[in-house]
Design a protein that fits this description.
The chain is an alpha/beta fold. The chain is built from 6 helices and 9 strands, in the order ββββαβαβαβαβαβα. It is 30% helix and 27% strand.
């Protein structure tokens, strides 16, 4: 059995450390000693896109916002569900994650960042959402661990009433917000309903 190899590291906005490891053919990203994501377990990232994009089958040119690039699995699934006129904006706060996708993860996600339908923005998705209105047919959020932030404490704002209402404003009529979470949260579900998400 081959040992785990540290490939790269980067600081997080909250002052922690994010580390990329490879073990045999698998990759893992850890933050402050906790496993944030790995290439062996990514079905939930695919399902996020499936759920969020299911209503787009009849749309000729949908516009999707993917919050959090990760290893590119959600982006890959979203692209596979869109036609040639679809457009996907990817917001990734950390330049290191973008670099790792370009250097290491292209084989995992079919070189998704090179797809002409993709627009990559290395920005805070909260700012992007707050400056958008009636723009997206779907918003796919895979930020941190969901409502309980791990990497960037400011991400918690996205999961507040104000953040969710900003998401509603950014969505077009009949738009869909899909949120990845590491664990169930009845409190967050109640907040979604209070913000008139169905």
């Amino acid at each position: 059995m081959n040992p785990r190899v540290k490939l790269a590291a980067a600081g997080t906005p909250s002052g922690g450390e994010m580390v990329l490891y490879r073990h045999d053919r698998d990759y893992a990203i850890w933050v402050d000693g906790q496993d944030l994501m790995n290439s062996r377990q990514h079905e939930s990232e695919l399902e996020l896109a499936r759920l969020g994009c299911a209503h787009l089958a009849s749309h000729d040119a949908p516009c999707i916002l993917v919050g959090g690039l990760g290893m590119g699995y959600t982006l890959r699934q979203a692209l596979d569900m869109l036609g040639p006129q679809g457009h996907v904006v990817v917001a990734e706060l950390m330049a290191a994650v973008v670099e790792w996708n370009q250097t290491y993860f292209g084989g995992l996600n079919g070189q998704s960042l090179g797809d002409e339908r993709v627009e990559l923005q290395t920005v805070d998705i909260i700012t992007l959402i707050e400056h958008s209105q009636d723009w997206y047919d779907t918003i796919l959020l895979d930020i941190d661990n969901g409502p309980h932030a791990l990497t960037h404490s400011e991400n918690r704002r996205l999961y507040t009433r104000e953040g969710l209402l900003a998401c509603r404003r950014a969505l077009r009529s009949q738009g869909c917000l899909a949120v990845w979470s590491a664990e169930p949260s009845k409190k967050f579900e109640r907040l979604l309903m209070a913000c008139e998400f169905k």
